[in-house]
Amino acid sequence: MSNKRMGGLGKLSDFGKTAKTQSQPEPVVAEEPKIEEVTAPPPDSTSHPAPQKQGDDKGKLVPINIKITRRQHEWLNDTARTVRENNSEPVPPNERVFPQHLIGAAIDLLQASSVEWSQVKNVEELRKILNL
Fold it and tell me: Region entry Disordered: which residue ranges (predicted)?
């Protein structure tokens, strides 16, 4: 029997081995930027901690499960596509507009509205207040 197997490829255990004559490049270690540590003044015992704003954690996305009408779903998809097509230059993936971004903008719009949320009792009332 010959030592060559599978059309001259050798044994499966030979794959992944490197020849001893090849020199391995030395790993390049990037120098970490130096960060100065800034200490905050001691907290005032009479002041209360500021409540965290919803916008402070913009980078963290959380999934939600919502039910919308088919018509709303189609509108979201069509509108997001239209916004993406408005760009003449390619847009990086992290800056492209998708339906979830439109929903997020709608939430921001609701938050910025002058609705007295403690007085709203149902969706129909909210639509009237928003003139929808």
Answer: 1-62
pLDDT value of residue 60: 86
Work out whether the CA dihedral 110, 116, 121, 125 comes out positive or negative: negative
What does 48-100 look like in DSSP terms, one character per residue?
Answer: PPPPPPGGGGTT----------HHHHHHHHHHHHHHHHT-SS---GGG---HH
Tokens of 125: 């009332």
Give residue 89's identity as a one-letter amino acid code. Answer: E
User: What are the pLDDT digits (tens) for 4-18?
Assistant: 555 666 666 666 666
Q: Between helices 99-112 and 70-85, what is the axis angle to 10°?
A: 100
Residue 48 C-beta-side C-alpha neighbours within 13 Å: 3
Task: Say if residues 76 and 99 touch (Cβ distance below 8 Å).
Answer: yes
Q: What is the pLDDT of residue 71?
A: 97
Query: Residues with Cβ < 8 Å from 73, sequence gap 6 or more?
Result: 99
Is residue 102 within a helix (H) or strand (E), and if so which, with residue range? helix 99-112
Between 17 and 132, the higher pLDDT residue: 132
